[in-house]
Design goal:
The protein is mainly α. 86% of the residues lie in helices and 0% in strands. It contains 1 helix and no strands.
């Protein structure tokens, strides 16, 4: 599967902008960023805890 081109990305962004409006987009992006950050943090915490607790 290939990456979408500039025209497809423009259409997707235009639809998202129309659906959510200009005020909600920064809030949505902030929420997505926080979710990704928490996910990465939990993965690194699991690695650290998994290495120490695997001997039992």
């Amino acid at each position: 599967m290939t990456m979408p081109g500039p025209l497809e990305l423009t259409i997707v962004f235009a639809i998202v902008f129309l659906l959510f409006g200009g005020k909600r987009l920064p809030e949505i992006a902030r929420g997505i960023g926080e979710g990704i950050r928490e996910f990465k943090k939990s993965l690194s915490d699991d690695k650290k805890n998994g290495d120490k607790g695997s001997a039992s």
